Recover the amino acids of this structure.
């Protein structure tokens, strides 16, 4: 009995070892052994162009590292994408720290202007779901206040604090909800002490705001920091130096099972390089010059030495 | 019920009665853009309708064209005009003038057409020239219908001028759009109420104007027989 039992135990241990090794290989963990094909990983994106560009950048960078990548671009809103991630139908998507936090915490209002703190809170919400947010990028797509180049030169403006002494000469334009929203007129008044001469109800980052900039109806307007047409319209975003706006920095949200050390390293390297100015350029290439998201992502990666 | 009392309280708040977003200022804006639109519309529509009705030609064409005009959605015109003219009052004016024209063309055409041919012949027989006949016989007889057209236009324009706020214009529409965006449903309801009251006031005041303009003869013709008899006796 004894030798048979021993050999049985040996076999079981061997089987367990093989199983563990296989499991390690399939998740690509450690990355010490050069397995011929890593992945596959499925990268998803939201239903707007910027998300497709970011998904392509993440996907192509991982592919450059040897992963087999499937794409599910324009998958839908967060209400569609998040459950797909939790159920493992996709492995990662390019998220936005503050908006994702407020999605997973069901609007508890935990997000603030600090990307690192906001991402940490996001991770405490993601942890029980088997998900993880990696490092937030400096690239940010959030509410921002812009002025025309002329206004910028006239008052030598770079940041929102610069508006405080001259607010009474300027008209603010934004969506009609602006006078009641903490991120908008009340926030500018409270956080920065800016009292505007007048408020013009327009739209949130839409054609009315652009028309009002064009004919000089407004001096300061609400836009999104990564809008592709900011440069062509001659608009300059003023730096939110007191962090009024929530930190909607780009951050990859990944299934923990797929977030191996290697995947994390590749994606964090991308996040470190990506800037808001890059987002503006990439968005303008897609929405104004009508280039494809995969092509502009590839060009961006080549600029950053990801030649394949 | 709390909703109604909220609206009442909104109107009672003195803060809503002054300043650039106060009711008097919004009322002036609303009336101004509406009056301009109806006036411009009348200058375009009435000569066309009156001329066509007087000569009795191309009437079907005019009515068909103006019916097509009625089918034009004001919101669509507004957005297109905004694309062309940009921000300001001009796109609103274009949309509202387009709305104002059709009822005035149709009604003034029909009003002139409906003048009894015997009356026209009598006018001729009495030596009226064509222009005098038009101005002193046909037009007075057509006043009730022409005025009804102007009234219809004006009420529609006042109600539709609310859309101006969609492209950053003023007027009572501001309360509706802003109230919706700010989830301030009291403001929204107050705005809707103000538009409705102004539209009714327009209808009533233009009816009064109409009564003043209609020649006494026609007024009596429409009156009950008994009063008509006494009126003619005393006349």
């Amino acid at each position: 009995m004894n030798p048979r039992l021993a050999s049985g135990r040996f076999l079981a241990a061997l089987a367990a070892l093989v199983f563990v090794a296989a499991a390690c290989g399939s998740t690509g963990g450690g990355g010490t052994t050069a397995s011929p094909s890593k992945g596959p990983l499925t990268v998803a994106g939201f239903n707007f162009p910027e998300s497709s560009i970011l998904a392509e950048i993440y996907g192509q960078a991982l592919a450059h590292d040897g992963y087999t990548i499937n794409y599910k671009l324009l998958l839908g809103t967060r209400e569609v994408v998040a459950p797909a991630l939790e159920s493992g139908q996709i492995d990662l998507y390019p998220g936005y720290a503050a908006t994702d936090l407020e999605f997973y915490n069901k609007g508890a209002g935990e997000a603030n202007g600090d990307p690192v703190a906001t991402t940490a809170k996001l991770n405490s919400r993601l942890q029980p779901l088997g998900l993880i947010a990696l490092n937030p990028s400096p690239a940010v797509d959030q509410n921002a206040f812009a002025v025309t180049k002329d206004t910028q030169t006239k008052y030598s403006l770079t940041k929102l604090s610069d508006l405080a002494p001259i607010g009474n000469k300027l008209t603010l334009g934004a969506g009609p909800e602006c006078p009641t929203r903490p991120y908008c007129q009340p926030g500018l008044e409270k956080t920065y002490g800016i009292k505007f001469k007048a408020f013009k109800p327009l739209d949130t980052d839409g054609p009315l705001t652009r028309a009002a900039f064009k004919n000089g109806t407004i001096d300061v307007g609400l836009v999104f920091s990564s809008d592709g047409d900011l440069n062509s319209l001659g608009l300059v975003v003023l730096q939110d130096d007191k962090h009024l706006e929530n930190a909607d920095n780009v951050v990859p949200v990944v299934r923990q099972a797929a977030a191996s050390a290697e995947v994390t390293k590749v994606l964090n390297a991308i996040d470190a390089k990506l800037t808001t100015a890059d987002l503006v350029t990439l968005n303008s290439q897609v929405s104004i010059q009508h280039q494809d998201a995969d092509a502009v992502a590839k060009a961006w990666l080549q600029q950053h030495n990801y030649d394949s | 019920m709390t909703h109604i009392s909220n609206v009442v309280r909104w109107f009672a708040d003195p803060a809503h009665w002054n300043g650039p977003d106060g009711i008097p200022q919004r009322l002036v804006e609303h009336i101004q853009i509406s009056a301009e639109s109806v006036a411009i519309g009348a200058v375009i529509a009435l000569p066309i309708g009156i001329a066509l009705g007087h000569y009795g030609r191309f009437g079907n064409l005019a009515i068909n064209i103006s019916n097509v005009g009625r089918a034009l959605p004001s919101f669509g015109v507004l957005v297109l005009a905004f694309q062309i003219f940009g921000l300001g009052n001009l796109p609103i004016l274009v949309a509202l003038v387009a709305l104002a024209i059709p009822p005035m063309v149709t009604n003034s055409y029909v009003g002139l057409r409906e003048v009894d041919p015997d009356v026209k012949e009598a006018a001729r027989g009495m030596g009226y020239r064509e222009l005098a006949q038009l101005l002193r016989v046909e037009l007075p007889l057509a006043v009730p219908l022409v005025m009804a057209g102007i009234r219809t236009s004006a009420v529609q324009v006042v109600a539709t001028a609310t859309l101006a706020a969609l492209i950053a214009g003023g007027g009572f529409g501001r309360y509706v759009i802003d109230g919706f965006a700010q989830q301030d449903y009291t403001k929204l309801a107050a705005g809707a109420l103000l538009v409705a009251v102004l539209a009714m006031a327009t209808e009533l005041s233009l009816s009064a104007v109409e009564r003043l303009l209609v020649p006494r003869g026609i007024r009596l013709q429409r009156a009950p027989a008994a009063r008509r008899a006494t009126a003619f006796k005393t006349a």
The longest strand of chain A covers residues 67-76. Chain A has two domains: 37-140+247-303, 143-238.
